[in-house]
Amino acid sequence: MLSEAERRSLEEIEQRLLADEPRLARTMNRRVRPWLFYALLLVFGGLTVLLTVIGAFGPAFQCMLVTAGVLLVRKYPLRLR
Fold this sequence. Notes:
It comes from Lentzea xinjiangensis. InterPro entries: DUF3040. This protein has helices at residues 4-20, 22-28, 34-54, 57-75. By secondary structure, it is mainly alpha-helical. The chain has one domain. Helix content is 79%, strand content 0%.
C-alpha cells in the first residue's frame, strides 16, 4: 500500500507524463492486442470443434481449456506489479 503522499506524487507524475508525452501514456494504457485475442480464439476454438468431430476428445479438451483461458484472461487481465 502506498502512503497518501506517495499516492499524490504518483498521480502528479502520471499527470505530467500525460501532458508531456500523451502518445506514450496512451500506449502504456492499452490492453492486449485485439487481433491476438481473436486469432487465438479462432485457432483454438476451431481446433476444439474439429477434434471433437473426428473423435479426438483428449486434444479437443486441451484446446477447449486454452480457449477458456484466453477468454478468462481477456475478461480478467493479469496485473503484474
